[in-house]
Amino acid sequence: MKKIVSISRILVGVLFIISGLIKLNDPIGFSFKLEEYFSAAVLNLTALEPYALVISILVVIFEVLLGIFLLIGYKAKFTVWSLLLMILFFTFLTFYSAYFNKVTDCGCFGDAIKLTPWQTFSKDIVLLILILIIFSGIRFIKPVFSTFQTTVLALFGFIGCLWFGYHVLMHLPTIDFRPYKVGANLWDNMIVPEDAPKADIDYMWTFNINGEEKVITTKGSYPTVDGEFISVDTKEIDPGYVAPIHDFSIERDGEDFTEAILHDDHVVLLIAYSLEKSESLGLKAIKNVADKASENGYKVIGLTASGHEIQDKLKAEYHFNFDFYFSDETALKTIVRSNPGVLILDKGTVIQKVHWNDVDDLNLIKVN
Fold it and tell me: Which regions span the lipid bilayer (predicted)?
């Protein structure tokens, strides 16, 4: 029994640390996922949406610390009870999400590993079993080091998590797992190969046949039946191939400029998913970037999901020398975890990407 508990303890501890650190690397991304859970369509806890970022930081730090505490044997009862309560809550949440198909990706491992809702639920069931084993053998969990050393390690773990969380918030994720990372070509990531697997979709056609409703399933073709058509529903069996970037576009006044801009040389994208929420210091920072980039021959455009009214207001207030284009808010949140943030592209390849706090690090060489 002691050996089984020890193995379970190592597996759970390591998994909690890895999962927590991946999310702590990108707390803003995890906060977006929490907002999705808090929405009226899922848990209907909309009052918590404004606090999603704070909650995300607290949750992931606690997750990492529980993993550390378990491995070093710090406060065994508190740690194991916390693990049990946390996994019970998340098992319920992932089952609810999977059964009702509310959230397609739990965000358990950020953008590093994507799991389907049922895969996530299965993962939580395995963790629940392992934690129950640990719970039943809690008497075997002893501190690895002396009481003082264990306490110091726990404190260092807490301070380290706080520092890392603050660092990525003030800059950008240390490791970028998204298809918009430095070195990625955005246009290439948008292309669907000709031989890529197609989506497998069932069409359920409802007809009134001789006064009785009947459902006929096809793969898309209209069924040949002698009856009155009522409605049609679809069910996705397999999504097929989905391009890494599938929701990004650059539009202005109803015209799509995506391909043209992503094939242009020396482009600076100034991205603010919400101009209303952008900090004044950030807007001043991108104003300076825009001026310098224009002087050095770069094509400068702004990308936002905000409306023309706020665009015109800020353009006049900050004397922006560039125009704003429209893009999907979710896509912009994915591109850069900063509002605003800056990307430098060369024929669609991301050369540099920075938080507005780090605009002084940009290398804007003369290109004309």
Answer: 7-24, 51-73, 80-100, 120-141, 153-172
Query: How much is the pLDDT for 337?
Result: 94
Q: What per-residue confidence (pLDDT) applies to 40?
A: 66
Predicted local confidence at residue 34, as pLDDT: 86
Cα–Cα distances in angstroms (integers) from residue 229 to residues 235, 236, 304, in the given order? 18, 22, 43
| CA 100 remoteness from chain centre | 21
- Phi, psi angle pair for 73, to nearest 5°: 75, 35
pLDDT at residue 48, as a whole number? 87
pTM, two decimal places: 0.84
- Least Cα distance to 218 among 197, 235, 201, 203 occurs for 203
Tell whether omega for the bond before 340 is within 30 degrees of 0, i.e. cis.
Answer: yes
Q: Which regions in the chain score pLDDT beneath 50?
A: none
Sign of the Cα pseudo-torsion (208, 210, 212, 214, in order) = negative
Q: What is the DSSP string of 29-65?
A: HHHHHHHHHHSTTTT--GGGGGGHHHHHHHHHHHHHH
Residue pair 83/12 in contact (Cβ under 8 Å)? The answer is yes
Output the DSSP codes for 138-181: GGG---SS-HHHHHHHHHHHHHHHHHHHHHHHHS--SS--STTS
Q: What is the CATH number of domain 251-361?
A: 3.40.30.10
Q: Which two tokens stand for residue 83?
A: 């693990």
CA distances, 169 to each of 59, 226, 336, 368 (Å) = 15, 62, 12, 35
- Domains of the chain, by residue range, sit at 2-170, 200-238, 251-361
